[in-house]
Amino acid sequence: MEGAELLRACDLNLVEVLRHFARSQPDGVVHEEAGFTMFGGSATWPGPFDNGVFVLDPRTEPADVLARAKRFFGGLGRAYCVWTGDHLDPALEEAAREAGLVLLSEGTPQMVLGRRLPDAVATPGVTLRTVVDDRTRRDYITVLQRSFTPSQGTPPEVLEGNFRDLDTVHGPHTRAVVAYVGDVPAAGAFVLVSHGVASVQYVGTVEAARGRGLGELVTRWVGNAGFDLGAQVAALQASDMGEPVYRRMGYGTVTYYRYYMG
């Protein structure tokens, strides 16, 4: 899988991830129209993965998308993000700017890996456990709340909602893992497979355990789990902190996504 086929598969997979998190939230809603998807997850947090619109068909009229998104999220009383990107319709990005939407990111790298890596091997004192029950699910949420909430401001209840029961994190196309230092949950990651793509999401390490390679360890584990579930490539949207780690692992940038807040 490469070129336009790869980019299309990554978009379709990403929209499935956005649907998944929205549907997991207690007040979540997903609205589909010809050519685009609107997803509303958290009722209070307007992040691009929580409330937004993603256009999959470039023939969709940008002004119409923006008007429908404004009505949809206005009815919910929420801010939202319009997804754009280097490989997506530039007319949508131009329309978002002209409409006064606020650019949140100059470019988030979409990175892909085209092969399964050697299995993740924990160092002495570190144990990897698949999230298969409520105890490990709770431990994964704890890791995210101790990493994403201080560093990115993500409210703890948003992370609770995204993984509110075992079905949201361990199913036919999803897996998650937690790395423990002794008995303390210290790092974790999640993967969702669709359209031949294993989407690596919510990689987090608690501050006290950073610098020990745990982020790379759990990323490798979920990426390989995605390949084992049938993916042809693994993909992720890299943060500034994570990009050097992922590049060292063999991930390469294929495009950039941007978000405009309305």
Furnish the topology, listing elements before pairings.
Layout: H1 3-24, E1 29-33, E2 36-40, E3 51-55, H2 62-76, E4 81-85, H3 90-98, E5 102-103, E6 108-113, E7 126-130, H4 134-152, H5 156-162, E8 174-181, E9 184-194, E10 197-205, H6 214-228, E11 233-237, H7 243-249, E12 252-261
Parallel strand pairs: 3-4, 10-11
Antiparallel strand pairs: 1-2, 2-3, 4-12, 5-12, 6-11, 6-12, 7-8, 8-9, 9-10
List descriptors.
12-stranded mixed beta sheet, Aminopeptidase, 262 residues, alpha+beta, single chain, 7 helices, 2 domains
Structure overview:
The chain contains seven helices and twelve strands. It is an alpha+beta fold. It has two domains: 107 residues, no CATH class; 106 residues, Aminopeptidase (3-Layer(aba) Sandwich), CATH 3.40.630. Strands 1, 2, 3, 4, 5, 6, 7, 8, 9, 10, 11 and 12 form a twelve-stranded mixed beta sheet that branches. α2 links the parallel β3 and β4. The two termini are 34 Å apart.
